[in-house]
Amino acid sequence: MTDEKETGDNPVTTRRGVRSFVLRQGRMTEGQKKAYDRNWQKYGLSRENGMIDPRQVFGRDNMLNLEIGFGMGQSLVEMAEAAPEQDFIGVEVHLPGVGALLKEVDERGLDNVRVYNIDANDVIDLCLPDACLDRVMIFFPDPWPKKKHHKRRLIQAEFIQRIRHKLRVGGVLHLATDWENYAEHMMEVMSESEGFANVQESGGYSPRPDDRPITKFEKRGENLGHGVWDLLFYRTN
Questions:
Q1: CATH code at position 159
Q2: Does residue 135 contact residue 63 with C-beta atoms inside 8 Å?
Q3: Which domain holds residue 44?
Q4: Total domains, the chain
Q5: Phi/psi of residue 207, each to 5°?
Q6: Per the domain annotation, does 187 fall within a domain?
Q7: 151 has binding-site annotation
Q8: pLDDT tens-digit map of 16-73
Q9: Could you say which of 9, 142, 211, 230 is catalytic?
Q10: What is the pTM of this model?
Q11: Any residues with CB less than 8 A from the CB of 229 and at least 6 apart, and which?
Q12: Known catalytic membership, residue 61
């Protein structure tokens, strides 16, 4: 499929379906821009490099995590700092978020983080070898709450199957949302997805794992009485 502009109620698409983002305007702060210019060469990954070998990228063969849509990077930085024995790849299209992440990574001296500033669809299809990931994380994706916009939601059966092939057998897909309707949608998609099984024997939602940081956004929602739903499914074949 070819790219389409967002018009009316039509979904924004790429050659492989619904994009993993909605392009929003936003300028980097001076600090974010300086961090981006100073650190991109060290931490940045690009589509033009093609399929990566994670062992070469990180110089070791450790647990490899992928976070899709890391926003301003708070969770990714905290997870990477708390688990220096693991490696993390973040995907985010919005430059202010990439700049903010690179600023934090540099200031904290983290060597276990790399970043893509492109659509996650291209990262999955063009940049990551099959069965290279131990965990994929998608936290609080855009819920598209209106029913007529549900087709724009990132968590769809086709997208999940493409992620499946990038996970090793036994690898985990971790989803989180603060929209109950989207949580129900996620559970329906995941429960029907070939090659995945819920880590919860009851088939329900999971308690928040200790290694998923609570963001300021999530805390604000909790203070307003919003619920949060975590789904953890592992690849079975």
A1: 3.40.50.150
A2: yes
A3: 13-235
A4: 1
A5: -65, 150
A6: yes
A7: no
A8: 555 544 555 578 999 999 999 999 999 999 999 999 999 999 999 999 999 999 999 9
A9: 142
A10: 0.89
A11: 176, 177, 178, 180, 183, 186, 205
A12: no
